[in-house]
Amino acid sequence: MSFVLLIGYAAIFFLLYKTFLIVWSLTYPFWIGRRRDLKELAGANWAVITGATDGIGRAMAFELAGQGFDLILISLRKERLGETASEINENYPGIRIITIQYDFTVADPKLYETEIFAKLDGHEIGILDCGNCRSRKRHYLWDNLIYSAAKQYSNWLSEILRKEYGAYGITVQTLTPSWVQTKLSHNFTSKKQKETASVPTPEKYVQSAIKTIGLVPQTTGYFHHQIENQFLLGLTPSFIRDKKLEKFATAARKRAMRKDE
C-alpha cells in the first residue's frame, strides 16, 4: 500500500469519525438516550441552585422541585428569593426550601464559609452554578473578555473534575446553551427576543437540558442549539466566524454604553 493511499484512507476514516460524533451529539442525548432518574443518579435529596430567582436558574428550581428535590436557593435579592420560594411551595407542597442571600461578585473565601458553606453543612446536595455579566456596562468589552475566558475555564475545570471524581459516582455535566430568553441575553440584543425554535424560554430549555443529565458529559442541552454548535460554529471557517462575532460585539457594546448614559 502506497503512502498516498494510506493517507487517503486515514482522511476518510477521520471524516467518518467526525461525522459519527456530530450525529451522535445530535441524536443520543435528545432522541435515543434513556432519561435517567435524577434522584437515583444523585443519591441525595437536596439541590443547590445559584441565580435561582431569574432565568435558567429559576426554571431549574421549579423543574427539580417537580421531581421531588428539596431546594437550597441562592440569589442576590432577598425579596425575590422569598417570592420564588413561595411560588414553588404553592405548586409543589411539601418541598423543603432554604434561601440564602449572597452577592457572588464578592469573592471572599471567608464569606463563602460563613454565609454559604455553613448553611449547606449537613445536607447531601448537588450544585448548579450560573454566572452574571450584567452589572458593568461601561466596561462591556473588558467584561465580555473575562466572561468568555471564565466560561472556557469552567469547561476545562468540569472536564478535570469528571476525570478525577467520576470513579466515585459523581456526575459532572457542562451545559453550554446558545440564546435563551433571559435578562442576560436581552443585554446583547437591541430588543427583547421573541420565543422561537432556536430561542426557547428558560422553562423549555430546562425541560430539554435536564433530560440529558447523566447521558453526556457536555452538551448545549437543547436540540436546536446543538445544531448551531455543530454546523454553524463547528463548520464555519474561523475568519468568517470571527468577523461576524466582531460585528456583533461592537454593536452590543454600543447599546450597552447607551443604556449606561
TrEMBL record:
InterPro entries: NAD(P)-bd_dom_sf (IPR036291), SDR_fam (IPR002347). Gene3D superfamilies: NAD(P)-binding Rossmann-like Domain (3.40.50.720). One of its GO terms (cellular component) is endoplasmic reticulum. GO terms for molecular function: oxidoreductase activity. The chain crosses the membrane at residues 6-31. GO terms for biological process: fatty acid elongation; steroid biosynthetic process. The keyword GTP-binding does not apply. Keywords: Lipid biosynthesis, Lipid metabolism, Membrane, NADP, Oxidoreductase, Steroid biosynthesis, Transmembrane, Transmembrane helix. The keyword Membrane applies. Pfam families: adh_short. PANTHER family: HYDROXYSTEROID DEHYDROGENASE-LIKE PROTEIN 1 (PTHR43086:SF2), VERY-LONG-CHAIN 3-OXOOACYL-COA REDUCTASE (PTHR43086). Belongs to the short-chain dehydrogenases/reductases (SDR) family. 17-beta-HSD 3 subfamily. This is (pine wood nematode) hypothetical protein.
